[in-house]
Design a protein that fits this description.
Elements: H1 20-30, E1 34-38, E2 44-49, H2 50-56, H3 66-75, H4 78-81, H5 95-105, E3 109-113, E4 119-124, H6 125-136, E5 143-150, H7 157-165, E6 170-175, E7 184-191, H8 196-209, E8 212-217
Antiparallel strand pairs: 1-2, 3-4, 5-7, 5-8, 6-7
């Protein structure tokens, strides 16, 4: 899954000489929590988050009057409070890599840049959630079960054959990646809704032939 297919391309940016007040209003109006900071050619210079603005804002206990406070805020420039060491990603890299960078760096989003370091998009933790929801197929309901299978090659083949023989239609398959030396891995399979008698037979057959760890049926979707 490439970043290009999941990033937001209509990205809102700002230049470093703008005021913090301008950035704060822009974030509020657009409902966003971060702004890539770019030069006149659109090359990345830094990133500004709502946290940066909060940290740079005077305390609520300030003794400044309204006019002094307004003047102070209007004088604070984005270049003074932005994060200059920016972690970026290319649109040809994977969503999985973006997720790792965000997780390890505790970022809520990453600017996406091209070969000239120009901002071409942004990918956020919300986009990562969308990927998970989309590939899992949960919006279409169905039922998910988890199997404990051997890490040996071909261990999934008999499961797929069994599902086909019993009329189950697979929506998604995800595997918990573990070293082969561990011997076993968890495999998560979501299938489409089935008639209740067929579903019960499938459950029983899987339990008899494989190690089933759990079944999960989301409350918004029921097996007929």
């Amino acid at each position: 899954m490439l970043v290009a297919n999941w990033m937001t391309t209509d990205v809102i940016t700002i230049t470093p000489e703008r005021s913090m007040m301008k950035a704060s209003k822009l974030m509020k109006d657009k409902g966003i929590s971060r702004l890539p900071v770019v030069d006149a050619e659109g090359r990345i210079l830094g990133i500004l988050s709502d946290r940066d603005i909060k940290d740079a804002s005077p305390s609520k206990a300030t003794t400044l009057d309204m006019h002094e406070l307004y003047y102070l805020l209007s004088e604070i420039k984005i270049q003074d409070i932005m994060t200059k060491k920016v972690v970026t990603i290319r649109d040809t890299e994977t969503v999985e890599k973006a997720a790792v960078l965000m997780l390890e760096g505790n970022f809520g989003g990453l600017p996406v840049v091209d070969e000239q370091n120009k901002v071409v998009g942004i990918i956020t933790d919300t986009d990562i959630f969308k990927v998970l929801v989309e590939i899992s197929g949960i919006y279409e309901g169905g039922a998910q079960f988890c199997l404990r299978l051997s890490t040996a090659p071909g261990s999934l083949r008999p499961v797929l054959a069994f599902l086909k023989e019993n009329g189950a239609r697979i929506m998604s398959i995800m595997t918990h990646n573990v070293p082969e030396s561990e011997g076993f891995k968890n495999v998560y399979i979501r299938i489409r809704d089935m008639d209740k008698p067929d579903f019960k037979r499938l459950q029983q057959g899987l339990a008899e032939n494989f190690e089933v760890l759990y079944w999960a049926i989301d409350s918004a979707h029921t097996v007929l």
